[in-house]
Design a protein that fits this description.
This protein is about 45% helix and about 5% strand. It is mainly α and about 80 residues long. It has one domain. Strands 1-2 form a two-stranded antiparallel sheet. Strand 1 and strand 2 form a beta hairpin. The chain is elongated. The protein starts with 6 loop residues before the first helix and ends with a helix.
Length: about 80
Amino acid sequence: MEQKPSKETLAAWSADPNNWKWGVFYYNKEDKRIMPPKRNPAMGWTVNFANNKSVLVFLLCMLIPTAIILLITLINK
């Protein structure tokens, strides 16, 4: 059984520049969180692009509003 990382480890992962691609995209295979905090936690949350579940959640979050806008556009024609 895997142990959960400590708060210090989670904070270190978020602060580590090696876990940020181009300084914007969080990519850490060790981190199993779906939505980890951004470098500055006051700015909200981000997606861990190394976690397939995170990428799926991100795509769904992009797809659902797009589908709604397309449906509204088609209905109003």
